[in-house]
Amino acid sequence: GAVVSQHPSWVICKSGTSVKIECRSLDFQATTMFWYRQFPKQSLMLMATSNEGSKATYEQGVEKDKFLINHASLTLSTLTVTSAHPEDSSFYICSAELGGNNEQFFGPGTRLTVL
Amino acid sequence: GEDVEQSLFLSVREGDSSVINCTYTDSSSTYLYWYKQEPGAGLQLLTYIFSNMDMKQDQRLTVLLNKKDKHLSLRIADTQTGDSAIYFCAERVGGGGNKLTFGTGTQLKVEL
Question: Which residues of B fall within a CB distance of 8 Å from A111?
Fold first, then answer.
């Protein structure tokens, strides 16, 4: 149980386009989901905390207009990278919190490459 | 602020024990975690420890916590080639919601 999926697993896009990444909790309801970014050989940096039905809380330095987060249901959160540029190329990982014990379950990640 | 540090690389021989260390700065940590990340994949939770505990053992894994020195370690007994991965420690701080602050990651390489 407690499986989190992400789609797509990898994406290559042209500079200036927008890319949407989905994060789904497959067998549980997640009131809170988290979006992280990981550069090669570096740690995970929290970008934002997403709560179902409310606006996401962004970490300092993360542009909310560039990284749009929608958490429309208890099993789905989406991250849209708007007007992507090469510096946005990274590994994006989401996690979903299983209510009650506060444990976070991580998705397999999405590798974004912007040309 | 929160700052979590780890050594970058550790190499061990198969069958030996591995010890991965982590230091943190926030004394109000409530939970401390160890995650494993294989290449191109997400994170797998290995184990966690409450901040009021000194030690936790789970099969081949032993977690030691020295709260006074803000030092956390993960010992893997009888290390196998399948243990080769990057290991992250993470802390959850009281009053910070359920946000996790991750360490810099330690790459473990297990050699035959």
Answer: 40
